Amino acid sequence: MISNYALLLHLLLVSCFIVASSSKEQNEYKTIAIIGGGISGTFTAKYLSDYDDKCLLDITVFSPAPTATTLSKDEIDSERGATKYHQGSRVSSAVLHDGTVVELGASIIFEGNKLVNDMINGDPDFLVKGEPYSVGHDVSKAEQLKIKTGMGIYNGKQVSKNNDNPWSLLMANMTSSQVEKMMLWRYNLDLWRVDRATKRALESFNLIYDVLDSNHVKTFLESPNDVWKTVGLAHAASVSFDKYLDTIGVSSSVSWWKSLFLGSQGVAREELYTAINICNNNQLNSQMTGLAGLVNLAASTGKLFSIKGGNDKLLQSAFRQAKQRHDSVCQKKNVYGNESRIKWTEKMVKTLVSDFESGMELFDQQGKSMGTFDIVVLATPLQFSGINFLGKGSMFDSSVLHAIPLNEMVDSENSNANEHGHKNALGSHLPSSATRPYTQVVTSVISNANLNMPYFNLVDPDKVPRSILFTQRGRDDLNISSISQITDGIYKVFSSKVLTNETVVDIFGEDAILETVKLWGGKEGGATPAFNGGGESSFSTKFMLYDGGHGAGAFDEGSALYYTNAMESAVSAIEISAVGSKFVSKLIARRLGLIEVHGDRVGDEL
Known about the structure:
The chain is α+β, with helices and mostly antiparallel strands.
């Protein structure tokens, strides 16, 4: 790969050579580039196609070809499996040799996720809901009998060495009634307090859909901070989950009288809620935001599902729906014959060069132009996109390249978001949410596996749970955040580091086979944002990172750069990505005159 400096020199020469001919042909349609082919990118393509009844858009999604999920032994040992820069999807599925499908990234979907359900309803034959841990094929009754049930929370082997019970909670092979009684006995009113807060948060969150569906001028929100403020979730989005639990009165210790008279009492925040957050985000309550913690708990208020054949089918379907809808409408109008204006390109973008006259030109890693666009949507986390953001032209030389002011911030030193904090001459920065690292998670799929009961101090096979979650002590002891049985003989492990062969043998036996390893992490990437306990870290960028029109006046004057992943400043989930996509699409549609805005008179109320 050529260096940044060599690339900039190449771009300077190219821009000087084509200065007279590089401006885009004057087309009636508007060109849009979407960088990133995950949930954010594909859903953005779908929403923009929905807005484009006039057939004015030409949309290209840029997404590198998926990397192999199975790493070599050397890659596993050295953790070289993480790509340096990432512009692809964090929704990923692996198909094993027997056809079993295992989710490697985002695994389950909440039934209350309206945008995901809308996408499913648009392609019901391809997107079929299955049970959580759906394996992509029918499971026989004999196989079902071999699959464990229930959940346990493990405290680590060090606890068992001290003759303490290594299990905070063990609920294998219990009825729902038995589970409810055990939870209420151990955690008392704290369960009710958190359940009530979660349901109220969901009611507030659901207001987002009304905002998205409205064309009122006040619903075109500029940032996720505005979104949370509008629906009443600003406090939850800005404090740590620990502090949020304090505000709703959740205990931080067991009262002496409960221990004396009731026995078997536990601290819900230390055991249950810590284990849930470690499982989903590999972060502690003090590191999570209140909103991120509440989203993880939404699972307790309704049903969960996954897509049969893999959740990554959502990406395929969203793009296909965008293409089919747009092609159908525009071909009927005979706008551009049989040529499709919704395209997919398996390439990585290295540099964006903005020019007020011609738009935003994208270049690949070799400095080759990938096209010039009116609108660019960054649908992947800024901090490990690996993109140089440059502008062309000055009052002295029209060919000079310089850093563009992302989020109204100017960086005078280097335009690569991976190497600095976008600091300007006044000392300002992009919000830390746009520069902080993401949390590393390793997904391992093991076949021919049998859980080693003595390793976890289990004696009775009927007490072995299907899912094992970990407290902070348990995670720190084993570097594992969850273990789940997918089907008979197949397990999935989320861990902080790549599992050693010794660990695999200790937990699953000598005959266990490490089928697939997916490393979400390294210095430049990760699975979910490191929320850092809210506060300043939860402050987001704007949805529009850069306005190439420089305040020229009309909405459609000049090019623009938008950022869907701004939504991840305080919370991360599949539905959150979809929400960010729709807010950005709505802003673009307004800019390009694709929708009619109402209520723009002074004093009009939402």
